[in-house]
Amino acid sequence: MTDLSIAAKETLAREIARTLRAAGHAALFAGGCVRDRLLGRVPKDFDIATSATPDQIVALFPRTIATGRAFGVMQVVLAGHPTEVATFRRDLGGSDGRRPDAVAFSTPEEDAQRRDFTVNGLFSDPETGAVIDYVGGREDLGKKIIRAIGDPRARFAEDYLRLLRAVRFAATLEFAIEPETFAAVQEQAPRITAISAERIQQELSRLLVEAPRAGQALRLLQRSGLLAVLLPEVAALEGQEQPPQFHPEGDVFVHTAMMLDAMPADRSRTLAWAVLLHDIGKPPTATLTREPDGSDRIRFNYHDEAGAKMAEEVLRRLKMPADEIEDISYCVKNHMRFKEVRQMRRAKLRQLVGARTFPVELQLHWLDCRASHGDVVNHEFLVQFQEELKHEPVLPKPLITGHDLIARGFKPGLELGRWHKRAYERQLEGHLTTREELLAWLDAELAKPAAPDAPTS
């Protein structure tokens, strides 16, 4: 599918609406695009609600995709871009808490009533921009309130994902959740488990990435009761004390929320999840030790390794893509090594900086420091080291290969790999800059009596 600008998407949506209207059908912009325009925000897409049935939509357009035909939801593809076109409907039943049992095609008024929140129940005329409001959405936009349409308990029972969406909309729009609606969220929070892990993960990811202050979003998720159900490992951070000399900000939950709040606006999903999960290994590894001066101190030995395993379990549970699980877990496992960067050998530094995840790791480290002791000297050191490598490959091509080692009597296997690693690290140190120099060093090392058992650091 073609990736278009917002203006191009709107032009295509208007063309679809004109075609529907020319055939005698009603056609209105619906939902998020209307809300965002009224808030002065840039819509992501333009959805159309219409009186045309799926069969009539198919007859009018050369290319359509039946994404939810039984529920009246189609996609019309123009210029390679899909636009959602849905028939006005009312939902019938919702016995599984995930989707209606059936639908009946109806009117704009009834269609608005079956939507989730008032701010999402608005329509507008594609040509004039006139807003059509059957549910009081404009007033709630003005008040900055997320309010369920009608009885909130009934709305949530139709689709329990709406419990999480209420929190996401409040967090991303920086609105408050209307008290009765929020009470219903808290009451029904345990029922979120009826929803598939994939849908939950998508909502949580959007909350973490899109909320201007993701730490406040986390606090709202906690107050709603959803955090304890969905991410008990994160909920356990609350109340976990930390050494005040390193963490004057407070417990691990406070620390994590502060980091989330400080994330850049253009954050990646990998960074957002790495921040959220970087310290989840602290509660299970917390110990109280007696220091030489007689004082007690909380320690979290190997919390990074424990946290990485826990993060992988959490993300697998949420059906996160495998490559993202690998990157996020790697960031969690290695976030403590940044405190040692000024003592690292140049070869190890180059390997650290050359890692695929390094840009995220560097951001994670900066956030970690700023939300605790405030010392960012190691961050500055790494930024300067990157600057020094700006005009050369961070991880250059090895000057010698496995074939060179085989020519010296090695067989493919672990021993060959260890010697190849030693040679590459020697190259990265910068002392040996040509293939001839490195081969001479290798031959000299191999000539030593203890060479085959030499350490591999």
Largest sheet, in brief, is: 7 strands, mixed
Number of helices: 23
Number of beta-strand segments: 13
Radius of gyration, whole Å:
28 Å
In percent terms, what proportion of residues is strand?
5-15%
Oligomer, anyone? Answer: single chain
Examine the coordinates and then state which fold CATH places here, giving the name of the CATH topology of the largest domain. Beta Polymerase, domain 2
Any idea how many domains?
Answer: 4
Give the terminus-to-terminus CA distance. Answer: 49 Å
Roughly what is the average pLDDT, rounded to an integer? 90
Q: Give the name of the CATH superfamily of the largest domain.
A: Beta Polymerase, domain 2
The residue fraction in helices comes out at 40-55%
**What structural class is derived from the secondary structure elements?**
alpha+beta
- CATH class category of the largest domain: Alpha Beta
Q: Give the low-confidence spans.
A: 451-457
Shape: globular
Looking at the overall shape, the CATH architecture of the largest domain is 2-Layer Sandwich
Walk me through the structure.
Helix content is 50%, strand content 11%. The chain has 23 helices and 13 strands. The chain has helices at residues 6-22, 32-38, 54-60, 108-113, 137-143, 152-158, 161-173, 179-188, 197-210, 214-224, 226-230, 232-235, 252-261, 269-277, 282-285, 303-317, 322-334, 346-354, 358-370, 377-388, 402-406, 414-429, 435-447, and strands at 27-30, 47-50, 64-68, 73-78, 81-87, 89-92, 102-105, 122-124, 131-133, 145-146, 176-177, 287-290, 296-299. Mean pLDDT is 90; it is low at 451-457. The strands form four sheets. A seven-stranded mixed β-sheet has the order 3-4-5-2-1-8-9. Strands 6-7 form a two-stranded antiparallel ribbon. A two-stranded parallel sheet has the order 10-11. It has four domains: 1-143, Beta Polymerase, domain 2; 157-230, Orthogonal Bundle (Hydrophobic Seed Protein), CATH 1.10.110.30; 334-388, no CATH class; 402-453, no CATH class. The chain is α+β, with helices and mostly antiparallel strands and 457 residues long.
